[in-house]
What does this fold into?
Amino acid sequence: MSFVSFEFLLFLLILFVLYYTLPRRFQWMLLLVGSLVFYAFASPKYLIYIAVTAMSTWAAGRAISAEYRGRDSYIKETPDITKEQKKARKEAAKKKAKTIMVLCLVLNLGILAVIKYTDFFISNINSLFGADIAFMRFALPMGISFYTFMSAGYIIDVFRGKYAAEENPARFALFVSFFPQLVQGPISRFDDLSKSLYEEHAFDAQSITHGAWRVLWGYFKKMVVADRLAPLVAGIAGSPDKYAGGYVLALIFFYSLQIYADFTGGIDITIGIAKMFGVKVTENFDRPFFSRNIAEFWRRWHITMGTWFKDYIFYPVSVSKWMMKVSKWSRAKLGNTVGKRVPVYLSTILVWLATGIWHGASWNFVVWGLLNCVVIMISQEISPLYDKFHKRFSFSNTKGWDIFQMFRTFWLMGFLRVLDVYRDVPLTFRMVPTIFSGRGWSEMFSGGLLKFGLSTADFVVVLAACIVMLVVGILQGRGTVCGQLSEKPRAVRWTVIWVLIVIIITLGAYGIGYDAAQFIYNQF
Amino acid sequence: METLMDILTELHPDVDFDSCETLVDDKILDSFDIITIITELNSQLDVTIPADKIVPENFNSAKALWALVEELQDE
It folds into this structure.
């Protein structure tokens, strides 16, 4: 059941009516039932995967919390306990808790690894050793990368003592399976999501209206922009022999727009739906195309993934005992200036490798992750030079320079992102240089771009939609657009909403060959 | 405290670490800076800051960070 389907709208309507008519104490249970129904529509047999992850993580969390409670009551109830005894009891509890956490992580990340990466592993073995091992072709359960990471974050937080484990298995199952975020995240944290997910919600007309506006805005981006551009992007990337040179630059540009509209639109729908049920889902974007460099871009794009990797991989690896030894060794051998960078850069490489692999089982994503890493490291190294540049030249502190930086970041990210769309890494590296060969440019501007099922009117629609998205982006810098729209007279509000609805209905990309089922990030 | 102030000032000479209490919230310190501070503290004071202590409250000001160092030294 796709977000972009009549079945989903009907499902949502039924759930919504029941949610606000049943006694409020049943609301979270209804959301759980709704989430399971939503998941079962994708494929009932995949329920087993999400159930294993949810229940094993819930049980592990309870076991860790029980261990910590035992520790605390022992310390509290033992009279005249010495500092050493207290420390020993704490260490024993931590050790047991760590074993439970590691087992839980191995099980659940293991399931993800086997399902997602077995065929990638087999294909590399086959290529390297000339073997002919058959592929397993596991189907990927919906949202597995997202709910596995949410569960992993939860168990690590419980181990760290950030919060106590959830006692009720059904409530925990709702956290893992909450339907709006199963499609493409965000990767929510238990302490951010749980309160509003479990508490009772009265019918709040303003919150529901704002949620519905956000959903509409998401559908606009997804259906009017992303899905309109999908055949163009697939067409250029799918026939590299025919479409090189200028077409590659067009591919970079249009794919950047497509993935922005697709992913942010999907998240708008997720956050909007959750808001209609009174649930507060974490924001996943902060106007990413207004970023002035790649590091800033990654702080504003897919925020929940970035902070997940930072909190659960980058920091723990960077401050691990092993890394501290590496740091001391590198300072002694390489000198203080170079040596102190080693832990940061080793951890950064690991995080970007993991980020690439998380996105997909292919070398394209591994190379994409490492290229991002290289650019971020170079930016980090030249930042002192950059500071000097800013002090020396006054124009670098102007709005015009900011806009230039945003333009530069847009294209730099676009050039890296093109690895998503070509079938392999060598092909991508062959195609990108053709941009400068002069091929394809005149053909492209003599109707070449109209070969992919898009008419001139479609390009006008995309251009107009981009202007609207840019204006909304500027407005978002002043606060939430819903809040700003609420302050306008009723006639203005309704005009905006109806125009949006009419545009989605009349200009949304429908028709033969159009597959509304897939959000790009749904496959990650 | 002096060691910590030296480490911070070397990273960002323009920042007034005596008064600033929004080092993380205002993005003055990024994750690279935080790891550099932790490795420097480990190297110079032999204090290991675990990952679960890397939260904005502990890194928003030099004072808070020094309180954390003292707490870890006491353990």
